Amino acid sequence: MRNSYIVSIILGLSFILFGMTACKSKTGKEKHAGHTQHQLYTCPMHPQIVRDQPGQCPICGMDVVLKDANKELVVDSNITGLTKPVNEHVIASISAIAAERGTRIYTSEVNGVITYDTRHQTSIASRVGGRVERLLIKYNYQPVRKGQLIMEIYSPDLAAAQRELLYVAKNSPEMLSAAKQRLQLLGMQPAQITQVLQSGNVLYRVPVYSNSDGYILEKTAQAQAATPAAAPAASADDGMGGGMQGGGPAPVAGSPAPVASPVLFREGQYVNAGQSLFTIYQSSGLVAEFAFPPQLAARIKKGQKLLFYPANNMKAMQPGNIGLIEPVFRNGQNFTLARIYLQDNQLQVGELLTANIPVIYTGGWWLPKKAVWQLGNRSVVFKKEHNAYVPIEITTTAETKDMIQVSTDISDWKVAANASYLVDSESFIEINKNVQQ
């Protein structure tokens, strides 16, 4: 019995030792299998980057670390929004606003100038061809009187006609009236013809007289004065003392400016028969010309009233009615001239004016000016979509001091309150064409 108990103990110890040996051997095999398993490396900032060997992240350049085998790789689906280009998708916490709608009245402000009325101008031309022997006009806009001597011209044709007159007077008196009429058509005065007949001498200098009272301007200077120069753009005021940009720079009225420049026409120059040499502007009637940009020109009409005053004296404000609307295209600029005809006015030619005209804007939506970004002749707003802003092109119809009228339906949009904060200075805005407008 005792021997049987000892044998049982020995067999039990043997089984225990054999089990421990087998377990140790299995643990070693598992550990060895773990060491021989392939290791993976990932980027701490970009978990989607997985490599089979140490190195650097191709996105941020950080060293990759050993990946935990028991931790699954989780990629945030929102990460795709952060990796889009900034010129077509902007992540920002800037406040968003909605567009306003309604009819608004603004007082538009435009610039103008006092000029001569072209309906009352006259032209001085030479009736015969010849050489200028004497010129009495020294500078442009020199005042002249009707009948005043302007210049004297030597003409071989006129001298020959005078010799013919003397010959006819002696040999064919019945043809004398026809010879006198010919000289009158060539520019000679009846008193001069009588002088030739009485003295028997030919007048080699034919005088040219002024045919009107006013201010004289040579033709070459008139062509230079008609070139428009850039002027401040039209603006609008909402009645609170502010002005508005009205669609880009508008030119000043292209009329002669009263500059007393020297006359380029010189004695000794030759002129042709019928050549226009000078223009005389009468000072009895003046015109106030105002330049309207295209956006504002479509809202004015003939007979419309406006208030205007000299640029340096707002107290001298006076009313006026638009008498003529003339579309003009000069030097690559498109604008519209509106004329107000003045009578018995104390304003001087060349005096700068400022005019105020009320304009009613109906329809459309209104956004603050800073919410719209200008890309040349295109306008862009940043529409809020989820947590990002997407640039979308819109169509604008009017622009005031602080607001812009939009014809695109943006009634249910939320747009960035300040578009300039979302513009990347190193890239162009790529407008999303797929967004429903």
Description:
This protein is an alpha+beta fold and 437 residues long. The protein folds into five domains: 33 residues; 38 residues, no CATH class; 102 residues, conserved putative lor/sdh protein from methanococcus maripaludis s2 fold, CATH 2.40.420.20; 129 residues, Beta Barrel (Elongation Factor Tu (Ef-tu), domain 3); 97 residues, no CATH class. It is 20% helix and 34% strand. It has seven helices and 31 strands. Strands 7, 15, 19, 20, 21, 22, 23 and 24 form an eight-stranded antiparallel β-sheet that branches. The chain is elongated and about 135 Å long. The relative contact order is 0.16. Pfam families: 3HB_CusB, HMBD. One of its GO terms (cellular component) is cell envelope. InterPro entries: 3HB_CusB, HMBD, MFP_Cation_Efflux. This is HlyD family secretion protein. GO terms for molecular function: metal ion binding.
Computed structural class:
alpha+beta
Number of domains: 5
Helix content: 10-25%
The CATH architecture of the largest domain is Beta Barrel
Major β-sheet annotation:
8 strands, antiparallel
The CATH topology of the largest domain is what?
Answer: Elongation Factor Tu (Ef-tu), domain 3
Name the CATH homologous superfamily of the largest domain. Answer: Efflux pump adaptor protein, beta barrel domain
The count of helical stretches stands at: 7
Mean pLDDT score: 75
Q: What shape does the CA trace take? A: elongated
Brief account:
The chain has 437 residues and is an alpha+beta fold. The protein is 20% helix and 34% strand.
